């Protein structure tokens, strides 16, 4: 009797040992059993490492770990001839970096970036952009206890459940330090959007039980200077002080609180997004919910819209003095049917309390024994102030991705001027002013 088995090589390696992949076949080894391996028509399987790349047309891959040599990103698909320098990225990296104030982690990192490829003589070349930020203030020994015991509500346990191994220092890839690559890429995306007059701006609207009333913020005229005027990044000074006080209360107790970041987009081109699976708000939800510590997402009227009737919730149309179709209200949040309508896009992202706290908690060890843990290390008592540039970055990346898709599909041929608006043209580049 002869059995014929086609070999299945993994990672594209035709030399894979069939016996090592199927040890049970060794039991079949006898003079009566012959195994023939046909390598000429072998089926090849490729294992794809998932979850580190975001986007379709402009793709961002982040790399690095919290207490490794450094972190960063590779940006592939960035349009060529965009004036870009490391200073453009550093502005938002400085907003994200640790050690900014008493209400953030005291870890001291300058988060100084360098661009290793994809930019020549001050302009993008259209090739992959490599951005690297070294880690300079690692304290791996702070995580000795946490290498044995799981932090409650952290990714320690689930990383072990998935991979069977993990980087224990600082949480590895589950650390918010991974977001450096996102913020750097988001800075590039924001610069692209700026050429079209589109602005992405986020701020803190809630810390624990301190909630900023919506009518106190004018989204039409909100400025980044208002947001950056205090350490909690709330544009209202009175509520900013209340939020800072709420964080201080838990900080001295070794505890933490959560909060909400509100993000708006002004002057978004009309027509971005798709009608079914790739709705613009759906992609925005995925983008911001991929950030560490996120637990909720609301768009436009959000859950409050469920208390309204259709006649109360609908945004009625009118024609403005420039002949453009507008809406009198904006409960849709600037997107209808998955497609942007030109009104201000607005969303809210909920962040949970930081899971690594300096208070005793019950947990289990990696060998499944119950124990108690007091986590050490340097951690934010509230993540939302530093999450503001992270949310902006992810929103900007989604918008640029959809902008490129819209340009490719709907603006390749002459548009219908009765119904569509042309995408704004970028101003010509003055080569004499490009920094070299």
TrEMBL record:
Enzyme Commission number(s): 4.2.3.5
GO molecular function, one term: FMN binding
Protein name, entry field: Chorismate synthase
Keyword Protein transport belongs to the record: no
Top-level EC class as recorded in UniProt: lyase
Record-linked Pfam families: Chorismate_synt (PF01264)
Cofactor: FMNH2
Species for this entry: Tripterygium wilfordii (Thunder God vine)
Co-factor note (free text): Reduced FMN (FMNH(2)).
Signal peptide (UniProt feature, chain positions): none
Gene Ontology terms: biological process: amino acid biosynthetic process; aromatic amino acid family biosynthetic process; chorismate biosynthetic process
Family matches, as Gene3D superfamilies: Chorismate synthase AroC
Stretches that traverse the bilayer: none
Function: Catalyzes the last common step of the biosynthesis of aromatic amino acids, produced via the shikimic acid pathway.
Family listed: Belongs to the chorismate synthase family.
Swiss-Prot/TrEMBL keywords: Amino-acid biosynthesis, Aromatic amino acid biosynthesis, Lyase
């Amino acid at each position: 009797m002869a059995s014929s088995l086609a070999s299945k090589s993994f990672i594209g390696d035709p030399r894979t040992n069939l016996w090592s992949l199927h040890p049970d076949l060794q039991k079949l080894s006898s003079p009566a059993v012959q195994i023939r391996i046909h390598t000429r028509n072998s089926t090849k399987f490729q294992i794809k490492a998932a979850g580190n790349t975001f986007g379709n047309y402009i793709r961002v891959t982040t790399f690095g770990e919290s207490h490794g040599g450094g972190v960063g990103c590779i940006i592939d698909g960035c349009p060529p001839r965009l004036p870009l320098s490391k200073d453009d990225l550093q502005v938002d990296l400085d907003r994200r970096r640790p050690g900014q104030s008493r209400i953030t982690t005291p870890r001291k990192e300058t988060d100084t970036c360098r661009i290793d490829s994809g930019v020549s003589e001050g302009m993008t070349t259209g090739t992959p952009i490599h951005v690297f930020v070294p880690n300079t203030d690692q304290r791996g020994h702070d995580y000795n206890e946490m290498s044995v015991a799981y932090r409650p509500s952290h990714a320690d346990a689930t990383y072990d459940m998935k991979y069977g191994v993990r980087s224990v220092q600082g949480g590895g890839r589950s650390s918010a330090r991974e977001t450096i690559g996102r913020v750097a890429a988001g800075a590039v995306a924001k610069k692209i959007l700026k050429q079209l007059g589109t602005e992405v701006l986020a701020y803190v609207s809630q810390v624990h039980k301190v909630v900023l009333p919506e009518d106190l913020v004018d989204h039409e005229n909100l400025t980044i200077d208002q947001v950056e005027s205090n350490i909690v990044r709330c544009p209202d000074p009175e509520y900013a002080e209340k939020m800072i006080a709420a964080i201080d209360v838990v900080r001295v107790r070794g505890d933490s609180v959560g909060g909400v970041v509100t993000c708006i987009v002004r002057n978004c081109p009309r027509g971005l997004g798709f009608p079914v699976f790739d709705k613009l708000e759906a992609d925005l939800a995925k983008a911001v919910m991929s950030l560490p510590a996120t637990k909720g997402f609301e768009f436009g009227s959000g859950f409050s819209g469920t208390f309204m009737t259709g006649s109360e919730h609908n945004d009625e149309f009118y024609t403005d003095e420039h002949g453009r179709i507008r809406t009198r209200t904006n409960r849709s949040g600037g997107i209808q049917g998955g497609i942007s309508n030109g009104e201000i896009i607005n969303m809210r992202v909920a962040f949970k309390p930081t899971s690594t706290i300096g208070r005793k908690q019950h947990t289990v060890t990696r060998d499944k024994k119950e124990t108690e843990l007091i986590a050490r290390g340097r951690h934010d008592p509230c993540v939302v102030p530093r999450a503001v540039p992270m949310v902006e970055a992810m929103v900007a990346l989604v918008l640029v991705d959809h902008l490129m898709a819209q340009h490719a599909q709907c603006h390749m041929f002459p548009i219908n001027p009765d119904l569509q608006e042309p995408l704004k043209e970028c101003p010509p580049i003055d080569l004499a002013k490009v920094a070299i």
